[in-house]
Amino acid sequence: MLPQHSYYSDYRYAPDEIPLEEFVLPASPSELAGALADCGIPTPDRLQQLQRSRGQPPLTSPTSAQQKPQPFPPSRLKSELLEPARYEAGLARIRTLDLQSGSDLAGLCRRLFADCPEDLDRTVAAFGLVCRLAERPRELHRLPCLADRAAGRPDWQSEVFEAVMSLSGVPCQRLEGLKKGANYATGHRSHVGGAWFACFIDGEWRHVDAIWGSAGLPLAADAEASEAAVAAAAVPQRNDFFFLTDPARLAFSHHPLLPEGAGPDWQLLARPLSLDEFHRLPAYFDGNRAAMGVCGLRPVNCPLCVIPCQGGVADLLLQETVAGRYRYIVQAEQVGSRNSGSTPVAGAAVSKPIRLASGRVCLKFLAPLAGRFELRVGVQRGPDWLTEHFAAYVVHCPAAAPEPANFPAGQLAEFGLTEEAELEGVQLMGCQPEEAEAATLEAEDGEAAWLLTSTNPLGDNPDAPLPCCVTFGGDVDSPTDTGDGLKRHVLQWSERAGRDRRFRFLAPRSGWFAVTIWRDAARLRPLCELLLVADTAASGAHLGLPGCDSLLGWPANVDNQQQRRLGRRRLTDEIQLKSPTLPGGGGEPCLSLRHEAELTLLFRTQGRYVARAILQRLRPGDLLAEPLSSFVMVNGAPEGFQVHIRFPQPGNYLLDIRVLPRREEVDASADVAAPTETEVEQPLCLLLLRSLCTALVPPAAFPQVLDAAAASDFQLLEPLNRRVSSSERPTVIRLASLEPSSERRSLLALVVEDRGGPAWRLPFEAADPAGLSSLRLDQEAGNSASRRRSLKVVTRTAGDTDREVPLLAFELLPEAGAEAVVEGEGAAARRASLELARSESRRRWQRENWRRAAIDGLEPLTWDAEQWERRTAEALAEQRANRAAELEQRNRELEAKRLQDQLVSLVEAAFPNVLNRNELVGAIESADSSSDRGATESALDELVAQRRLFMRPVPGGTAYLLQEEQPEGSEISRSSKIGNKKLQQPSQSESGADRWGMGRVVSFNRANFADLQLLRRARPTVAMVTRLMCEKRALDAVTLDKESFVQYETRGGGRDSHVYTLGRIGRRRVVSTKLPAVVGSPDGLQARVACGNVVTRLLGVFQDVEHLLLVGVGGSPSGACRLGDVFIGDGDAGDVGGDYLDVARGRSWRSVDRRLLTAARAAAEPVEDKAEEAINWTSILESLAAEAPAFARPPRTTVAAPNVAFGAVSCGALSGAADRLASNTTSKVIGADAGFDEVLESALGSRCDSFLLIRGCADSHTGEQGLHWQPFAALAAACFAEAAVRRLHGTTDYVV
């Protein structure tokens, strides 16, 4: 629909003018793009694409002038049919040909086509003759055979061409129809007709317009008059575009109507145009006279010739489809009716080309008044830069453009990136994603922001910020601001080591502005020029912007060499700003506060950090500032910290936040602690805060933080003011402990007079389960008539009363002559609450009146004490209720998360056995007698909803699985991979989620003989056994071409389930399984029997297994291994005699076949060659740990390559009294695990004489206590196992 405006409702149409409703485009850009893509609205490029896909190839059968083939759309382009050199040679021959005046037509044609063996050459000769006669009409009068036909006809070129082509032997069809020529009125139905031809050349029909191609004048009565007319006019210039023109290009200016009934066919289009479409489409005269190509342009938002606007601004968006840049010339004229002509508009403004991304160009037009305007777009192309007409549009503007209706001249030829910047990969975008291709940056409320980003540093020095220079200009009548004036309007800063450059602009007034960005201060190398529009001046523009370009940004984003060398993550990966959301998606360090005198920044951290904040007030143009330490405070918060800021007056403030990583406490049970580096304070961010609010009362100072490290373990809830009162109205100090419940410290308040004296010790109330502690300061606590006192909050560790760490400091206000309170504590509390409500209500009333006057422009409200006190009391009660609800909700969420993690751990430990709901609930209740059954069942349902667990019906209840069950028909008998007897060349390595999964999971039945036979056809020779789920996932990550087969045995409580993951490592087929943990087995006997049965059945199903690997986590009680190291069971290393020792029972196991041990020793050697079998296993470990954060090395630990140690491994924890072995045996044990004696007994009983234990060190015991190190240790063991299997010599399993 047309825009709802009186201009359109009152518009009077001229004769033959097309109704404006027919030019309305789809409202949304996506719908318009869809209409253009589907060719619902034809464009030259889209029609050409259809020609290529739907057009017919050339005919190969011979033709003649008498037997004309039926018209069909050709698929070839003009450039494929006509060679420029051949074309120019043919024209040059015709220009020098002797025409022999007075000869007949047949004789003329014989000489004309004498050296033209093909149809194309004869057609070029005929076209060249017409062009020669148009330039030299005297020669036409000397040829009576042609002059008689041309006499008195304005289109004599078509008569001459038709006469010559009739004797050429080339099939030629005369076409007559409508043409959009010089007299065509845009937006009207065309009535101008003419003739052109379709010539059958090289097996396809092509269009030739002899009239427009020769550009000749009408023929006069005699030769002298014709020569005089040519001399008086411009010399006719041949236009090669109209010779053999592509149908998709000619269709916008030529529409055939004759021969009657065959007009659409003679368009030679795969998608013909209707007559109505022909009238509504622009006439794209995109031919180049000097070259035979076409302009690589297509309309994006203006596919029709009339543009109905909503206001006085029109945008023409064009897409350049060829390499190289064009120059654009746009002329604007106001037009009336069809016959009234056009008048140049005084004051009309057309912008310079605005170059966008992906070759798009925008041309903006500002109407000086309401009316109808014609825009003619011309294109200049190198090397001669001649202006070629492209298209003409009629723009209807129902209103004038907003003042000022003109564009700034700027300093470059175009808006947008320069060609040099585009070649270097520089991108220009707004801070919001939808502004990535905005033609004009809109300064909403007078402010705008944009980003220059590049894959390479924008400056010459990659480590230095870009030395960018910005010049600013308003409309054409205003001067350009430089020097200090620049600092008042544009702010810039660097990010990503100079690869990103952000800018913020404050408009001093409404209107259009040009901002030019240069690489250097000398302004010799420009980067880009932007066009900005502001509807109003920016709020607080008089404050200006400071000159701190080189300081602003997020220094923590810089990934320097030292951090990469140490393997550390960037600070911004571990510390993130959660609220408020800063402009630019959180990356822009500039925040404007319009009506808030306070600000709170909430940071979430993944580790423990001590933060420090520095607040400074800046003056415009320099960095001289006064520190405001009393108006900034760092407060603890759950999972992070808070920064509170108050602004004493309007202005610009610089907030510098620095953090210090806190060293993690070393586990007392660990014998070996990883060394830590010296912790230094690191910068996190530098924020520019612009306060535009004038506070009604001066802001109060924050409490003083005495020890930042100790204070980070607490969150001060109230009060957040340094000065507190202890007279008539009691003050409550409330703090929340952020430490674990087992480590919470007690709090104490010390009241000290300024002039000295003993301190008055006031203990806090004991912390509740949520960690909240409070202290009430009444008149008795701070009784002093005229003395000032200070109050310090200190923390005291239980059992260490001599050491007290100060946290916060407050100032106690004196009573100032207040009368003594004789009533009880309850009455004093009631009076204090009443006074608090009165002061709060007064403050709310003042703030409401300020908002009404400053924002809404309303009358102020009258003061009604009773009403405002009631409203304030209700608001305070609601705040207290909301705070209590938030704390309760947080506790519920933490408890639910703990339950969910515990349930998932139980299911993972029992896998492949399945547990039903009753077993899981019972396990939770046995571990915690106070647990709630309803909460546990709710946690189970939530895990299913989150798809962390999956349900499977079993007899007697519902079982829970770790992966989703395959659909019906996915049983093993239908598997394609396992049926291959010999696999071919191994596939490439897996990545992403496939790497850490078990591959395709199908079910099998061990009791089914067919399933067992299909499994045995895999014939793996290496088996790997794990106990924990993290160990199984680590093995899956290093196994390729995985396929898992699972049997969930639901009878007997799910105690006979199995999982076999088949795959390959290198060129060997491998199979891995996981030992289940039996829930409800207190003595562990049932679990040991189940583990032995798993290995026995594994070796029974896969009878080709030669080697058994026990891969997982362990511990190093002797301290011989660091956390994360790998140790291998090798009895030869310490002359113990056994690879695996049970010290308590006096048993030992030794592998008879030592090939696995030999391969492990080879894998531990440094890698020198580049063969596949010699891949460095530590490199694989680093890449996998970086890919999966859950398996990464624990944070704040030493980053060093794991070592490999060989020695005896103990079955279970070492006993102090080992009377069955020699006393020196235990000293030669390098590690211990949780106990795999039943597994080895089953393996040796099944005659598997080759086994090897590979353990990753997770703690100083058996690997069960180091929960934080278990994933990384398991991954290290799995990577080393892969290296050992690759080094394993012997018969390979794959035939290459």
UniProtKB/TrEMBL annotation:
Biased composition regions of type Polar residues, renumbered to the chain: 972-991
Membrane-spanning residues: none
Annotated segments matching region Disordered: 48-77, 960-995
Gene Ontology molecular function: any one: catalytic activity
Coiled coil: 870-904
UniProt keyword annotations, A-Z: Coiled coil
GO biological process assignments: nucleoside metabolic process
Protein name (record): Transglutaminase-like domain-containing protein
